[in-house]
Amino acid sequence: MTTNRGTRVRLMVASHCLHYPEGLHERLPLLRRGLAEAPDAGLAALLDHLAGTPPVEAARRYVELFDTEADRSLHLTWYTDGDTRRRGASLVALKQRYRGHGYLLGDGELPDYLPVLLEFAAHTGDPGVRLLAGYRPALDVLHRNLLPLGTPYAAAVASVLATLPVRADARPVATDAPVERVGLEPVLLGYPTRLPEPTR
After folding, report:
1. Residue 109 — very low, low, confident or very high, per pLDDT cuts 50/70/90?
2. What is residue 23's three-state secondary structure?
3. Nearest to 138 by CA among 114, 110, 104, 109
């Protein structure tokens, strides 16, 4: 597998679009120029939506969409591990993968946050795309749960899915994960909250 430049550009645009939208309006012209190089209808529709939405309203809608229901979480280990002890181990493993490629998280960022995984894939190409593809079942669930709401974020997630190979060893979605809070720090249990912009 060789991840071409167009795919990497689309993954980076998706990372910005799916991040908490603080400061996003200022970046929209740059993101549009990126999509001109690597066109994608789903991401273009989301950019149009965000451009036409006042920043405060965009932030409110984002929180309502992703921060209020676990089945619309942008933290992908929520789907594969649930609120369990396993999730802590999965987050540690992701951090180790990032460090192995010289990729450092910003303060307060969780490594399973979809925009972080997308940025990692955009920067590293094949290694990041393979890592993200391992969470394809989680992304499928997220996409299915967004579709009935008629949100343009659903098309953006579909665009991400279209870039990913199918992996036979992808992590399955937990259907009935038990709650095991023992030994986990509270920060590991939350699904999306507002996160700072990544600094590289």
Report:
1. confident
2. coil
3. 114
Q: Which of 194, 187, 198, 197 is nearest to 83 (CA)?
A: 187
Q: How many residues does the chain have?
A: 200
Burial class (CB within 10 angstroms; exposed 0-12, middle 13-18, buried 19+) of 148: exposed
Q: Which of 67, 65, 92, 73 is nearest to 188 (CA)?
A: 92
Asked if 83 and 189 count as a contact pair (C-beta separation under 8 A), the reply is: yes
Predicted model pTM: 0.86
Strand-pair partners of 47: none
* pLDDT over 80 at 194, yes or no: no
d(CA 68, CA 75): 13
Q: Which domains does the chain have, with CATH numbers?
A: 5-188 (1.10.3480)
Tokens 């699904």 -> residue: 191
Give the single-character DSSP code of 46.
Answer: H
- Spell out the residues 6+ positions from residue 143 whose beta carbon is closer than 8 angstroms to its own: 154, 157, 158, 161
2 Ramachandran zone, left/alpha/beta (phi>0; psi -120 to 50)? beta
Coil, strand or helix: which one is 75?
A: strand
